[in-house]
Amino acid sequence: MHARFPALIYGSISGYGDVGPDAAKGGFDLILQAESGVMSVTGTPGSGPVKVGAPVLDVGAGLSCALGLLGAFIERQRTGVGRLVSSSLLEFALASLGPLAASVMASGAVPGLLGTHSPMFAPYGGFRTADGWIVLPARARRRCGGAPATCSAAVISRPTRGSPTTPAGWRTGMS
Q1: Model-level pTM?
Q2: Known catalytic residue: 18?
Q3: CA–CA separation, 100 vs 77, rounded Å?
Q4: Which of 58, 66, 88, 106 could make a disulfide contact with 17, Cβ separation 3.0–4.6 Å?
Q5: CA–CA–CA angle 77, 78, 80 (5° rounding)
Q6: Catalytic-labelled residue, pool 18, 22, 58, 131
Q7: Residue 71 vs residues 8, 67, 157: alpha-carbon distances, Å
Q8: 136 falls in which pLDDT band (50, 70, 90)?
Q9: Tell me: the pLDDT tens digits for 138-168?
């Protein structure tokens, strides 16, 4: 197509990318969540790995392709030449795991199933309260200008159990 229409901009979204041993395989969000490692950090020890509720890899690959198409459009305005822009579910999945991969490379510790929690911040995640569940991100007090009204002091203060020096220890005391 490019030889016949050099200004054409077009996109391709696949499961595994345009080249490589799996390029011809179909891509399904659920399968790629498992194969990429996304499901290795979702769920809890009690539930086992679970998929992310929404088709995040489908959507993310589409958004990545759209962003690339916009970049190609800007380039074509300057050069008059179009291009193929490709994206894949696998590429988006691996990019999404970047912060966790960096943590593994720095510490050597594989995070495992995290549920709503984070291996890098605490408190961070979902917590059961007397009247339901809340989610609490790290640094919430700073961003909210104080403790959110729905959070009790016991939830946002340092727990008495667990190690006070590691996020995992803080989570243990808050469960």
Answers
A1: 0.73
A2: no
A3: 38
A4: 88
A5: 65
A6: 58
A7: 13, 6, 46
A8: confident
A9: 665 555 555 544 443 334 333 444 444 455 5
Distance CA 52, CA 175 (A): 23
Token duo for residue 123? 């408190």
- At residue 138's C-alpha, the angle toward residues 91 and 143, to 5°, is 105
Domains contained in the chain, CATH given:
10-107 (3.40.50.10540), 125-174 (no CATH)
Site of tokens 């016949």: 4
Distance (Å, rounded) from C-alpha 113 to C-alpha 22?
A: 27
CA-nearest of 91, 88, 121 to 14 is: 88
Residue type, 143: R
Q: Is the separation of the CB atoms in 33 and 51 below 8 Å?
A: yes
